[in-house]
Amino acid sequence: MIQPSSMIAAALAALALYGAPALAADQIVGASLKPLPLYAQPGGGTPAAKSDGQGMPWPVLESREEFYRVKVDGTDYWVDSMQVRVSRNSSAQCGPVVKRVPGPTGSTAGAGENACR
């Protein structure tokens, strides 16, 4: 018989795997070099391939040592973060609305509005 704790662990693992692609919010949208060198591993060295940027935007799969891992034509490569432009998803949440300006909470002598009088 399957233990309930095993079922819960399996369900949590499935949810974690299902949600993982949503974390790749950054995208490579442009390159400062043409053709862009594509590396087999982070850290640079000799490029494994080059790309003219076809298929951009490329989702960032991982970031390490100032390099981004991307998938180009079905193959994983690393690109130098200094040679590409990245678009990051962002969102803002508004806080509570301030209905009045709060009074001063501290001051420096001579720095107030009456300092020159």
Automatic annotation (TrEMBL):
Q: May I ask which residue range the UniProt record assigns to the signal sequence?
A: 1-24
Per UniProt, the keywords (alphabetical) are: Signal
Q: Where is this region: Disordered?
A: 94-117
Record protein name field: SH3b domain-containing protein
